[in-house]
Design brief:
Elements (H helix, E strand, L loop, with lengths): L14 H39 L12 H10 L8 H11 L21 H29 L3 H10 L2 H15 L1 H23 L5 H26 L1 H7 L1 H10 L1 H15 L9 H12 L10 H12 L10 E2 L6 E2 L3 E2 L1 H10 L3 E6 L1 E10 L12 E2 H8 L4 E3 L5 H9 L5 E8 L8 E9 H9 L10 E3 L4 E2 L7 H7 L1 E4 L2 H14 L8 H10 L1 E5 L8 E3 L7 E7 L2 E5 L4 E5 L4 E2 L2 H4 L7 E5 L3 E7 H14 L13 H12 L3 E3 L9 H4 L18 E3 L2 H9 L20
Parallel strand pairs: 2-4, 7-8
Antiparallel strand pairs: 1-9, 3-6, 4-5, 8-9, 10-11, 12-13, 13-20, 14-19, 15-18, 15-20, 16-17, 16-19, 21-22
Helix pairs in contact: 1-3, 2-3, 4-7, 4-8, 5-6, 6-9, 7-8, 7-11, 8-9, 12-13, 19-20, 20-22, 22-23
């Protein structure tokens, strides 16, 4: 079996081999001609003798008849010359004038007259040579068809038995031509010796028929069918016999094998080109045997890995006109940050003046600590981080690009090409697109990778993803925020205390503290894209009080809508319930400004009241906070000396109605050196008695809807 390399080159025949083969062929022809001439001369003498004696025996049987040989031997002495007429006359008298046929047997040579041990020897010898011919024939096909590359694979990935067999056969099959010559030599010997023993047992025509049948059936078909199917197992078991046969015939087979190695070259196993490997993968993907079957996805990945190395980046890049870019002079304000977020890219090219002049790359992760209110120029970010801009040509192959990306320099490259100036000036480099590591991986796996922020399925064809392009949590973090002024805190506190029972749980001072730390969020609707403040079936953890603008709540499958303007509030249950999942959407209709109170801030204020106010207790729908408040109390007060707490005024409608009066901070009137030891367990046990006393608290208040 000839090895196949990537270029499918045939074994190179050396020039000296032609002269060698020609010389050997000439010598063989001369030898055959000499033997033929000698037989022809003897045949002519036999014919002449027969013609002179006018005998009746058939000329054609003279050279092959054993009885004639006996007559010939008895008719001459060792030193006498051959007298053919006399020999023929003696033969004629010995046969009584009857014609002789090739089927004739001497009476003394009949199987009935043979000793039993001769019969046994001939039968056993015939069986031995039939089996030997079959074994050699099976080894020739079974062992020589095993690829040395397959053995190397089995030694690493096969079962324990397969690894053992492969290790035994590897040194044998590496001497490919030595094994070939040895097996053919022993096969020829067995086939040629078989008729010698069959001819002594049966007539010649039976010997021929029996020999052909036995050799064909037991010497070719059965052994080759079995050993070719289980070649590794049989060869790995009988490897000692193969080495034994090689050793016996080494003197003859080794020189011939070295000659074949010199002429044809050594065998290195079967190797495939890329296209052939890909077709081999496709064949495995169509196999029905689960041990060899490859799924369609696996076949695509393997095929892509074989192909991508010869694909230029120009075939997979995002074209220049579809590239999202930023001007270096842009400010990182709310509008720019929102635009970056909506684009959904992790790396953005930055140009200066002309879009062909790309001067840097803006990594979105570099903007995590950037405050949109500061309106930093993009140039400041580029100067601080100094990201490398990698530029490549369109004919750069994907495998080279992958090596560059793997080196850690960058995961995105600008594709440019030289162009002649239309005005006759110097040539310049024009940007034709960008290529990223994601593009390379997609080409390998032969599929598109779509992450959470992608807008397009395929950047080459600009196929858009059919999904909503909004995210409440991200959007709110990008918008402009600020705090309430002291007067606004008092006004909002008064409104909330009057409007909602939830906030009437808090004393005035604590309600002011809560509002003082809350953010005022301003959202500007810059496009027709739908912006959601609260999304249906997604957990909500904040309360909102609208200052200005317009919101719209959408309920149920019928899409009933309810408009909300200034001083409307939404999300009260997000503060009072452990988990709140709304069954409605709230979308922004016009630019809106609202106070945002998070559940985290609300629980922190409740915990402060829980510690300082002995008379404080929770209503039933908020009792889920009890374990949280207890843990927070222990963490804040265990083994700590604290100043004696000031008197916190009880909630008073008179105080809360002073909407526009600034809140006077409550000063600690206790001297700084006065300290008391707080007994945490005693404090908690006192509060436990209050938890169940407020069962009718809600009944005494006006029930408020969650959305007003």
């Amino acid at each position: 079996m000839l090895s196949v390399n990537d270029n499918r080159k045939a074994p190179q025949i050396k020039k000296k081999s032609f002269s060698l083969v020609f010389t050997l062929s000439l010598l063989i022809l001369v030898a055959l001609a000499t033997l033929s001439f000698e037989n022809y001369v003897q045949h002519d003498e036999s014919v002449a003798a027969w013609s002179d004696s006018s005998s009746m025996f058939v000329e054609g049987y003279v050279p092959t008849t054993k009885r004639f040989s006996n007559v010939f031997a008895s008719s001459i002495d060792d030193n006498s010359t051959i007298d053919w007429p006399t020999v023929c006359a003696h033969y004629y008298n010995h046969t009584n004038g009857s014609s002789h046929t090739g089927e004739e047997k001497d009476d003394e040579e009949s199987i009935l007259n043979m000793p039993w041990y001769d019969i046994v020897i001939n039968v056993c010898a015939s069986i031995f040579f039939i089996l030997g011919a079959g074994l050699m024939s099976g080894f020739t096909l079974g062992l020589l068809s095993i690829d040395t590359m397959q053995l190397d694979i089995l030694k690493s990935t096969g079962t324990e038995k397969e690894r053992k067999y492969a290790a035994r056969l590897a040194p044998i099959l590496k001497r490919h031509h030595l094994l070939l010559v040895t097996l053919l030599l022993w096969n020829a010997l067995c086939v040629e010796c078989l008729p010698l023993f069959l001819d002594k047992l049966v007539p010649e025509w039976v010997a021929i028929l029996l020999g052909i049948t036995a050799v064909l059936l037991f010497g070719e078909i059965i052994p080759q069918a079995v050993i070719s199917r289980y070649g590794i197992a049989i060869g790995g078991t009988l490897f000692w016999l193969v080495w034994f046969l090689i050793g016996l015939a080494f003197i003859i087979s080794y020189p011939i094998s070295k000659l074949l190695d010199w002429i044809l070259g050594a065998d290195h196993g079967t190797l495939y080109k890329r296209t052939e490997l890909k077709e081999l993968v496709n064949i495995h993907s169509k196999a029905h045997d689960p041990n060899f079957h490859l799924t369609e996805h696996e076949a695509k990945i393997l095929g892509g890995a074989l192909e991508f190395a010869r694909i230029p980046v120009s075939q997979i890049m995002t074209k220049f006109e579809n590239v999202y870019m930023l001007d270096i002079d842009n400010k990182l304000d709310v509008e720019t940050m929102t635009s970056i977020w909506q684009a959904g890219h992790s790396r953005i090219p930055v140009f200066k003046g002309d879009k062909n002049n790309i001067v840097g790359l803006l990594y979105v992760k570099d903007l995590i600590l950037v405050n949109p209110d500061e309106c930093l120029p993009i140039s400041t970010i580029l100067t601080f981080y100094g990201r490398e801009v990698l530029k490549v040509f369109p004919d750069t192959y994907c495998d080279e690009m992958l090596k560059t990306f793997k080196s850690g320099r960058t995961h995105i490259a600008i594709v440019h090409e030289p162009r002649e100036s239309e005005t006759g000036g110097d040539p310049y480099y024009a940007i034709v697109g960008i290529v990223s590591l994601e593009d390379i991986i997609e080409e390998i796996i032969k599929d598109e990778i779509v992450d959470e922020t992608d807008i397009y399925v395929d950047n080459t064809n600009q196929s858009k993803i059919n999904r909503p392009q909004n995210s409440t949590s991200l959007l709110l973090k990008l918008e402009r925020t600020h705090r309430l002024t002291p007067k606004q805190v008092v006004a909002v506190a008064s409104y909330l205390w009057k409007s909602m029972a939830t906030f009437r749980l808090l004393p005035e001072e604590y309600l002011h503290r809560l509002l003082g730390k809350c953010a005022v969020v301003d959202i500007k609707k810059t496009s027709d894209q739908e912006l959601l403040l609260i999304e249906k079936n997604k957990e909500c953890d904040f309360f909102a009080l609208v200052f200005s603008g317009k919101l719209e709540a959408v309920f149920g499958e019928e899409k009933f809508t309810s408009e909300m303007g200034p001083w409307s509030f939404i999300g009260e249950r997000a503060l009072t319930r452990e988990t709140f999942i709304p069954d409605y959407d709230v979308r922004i209709v016009k630019d809106v400004s609202f106070v945002k109170i998070t559940k985290k801030d609300f629980i922190e204020i409740i915990s402060q009241v829980f510690i300082q106010e002995d008379s404080f207790f929770l209503p039933k729908d908020m009792e889920w906070m009890n374990p949280i408040l207890t843990n927070m109390t222990k963490n804040q007060t265990s083994n700590v000396k604290i100043s004696s707490s000031p008197h916190i005024p009880h909630r008073s409608s008179d105080n809360l109605n002073k909407n526009l009066e600034p809140v006077r901070p409550v000063l600690d009137t206790t001297p700084a050196d006065t300290e008391i030891e707080l007994d945490v367990d005693h404090t908690i046990s006192q509060k436990k008695g209050f938890f169940q006393k407020y069962s009718k608290f809600k009944d005494d208040m006006n029930e408020e809807d969650d959305i007003v």
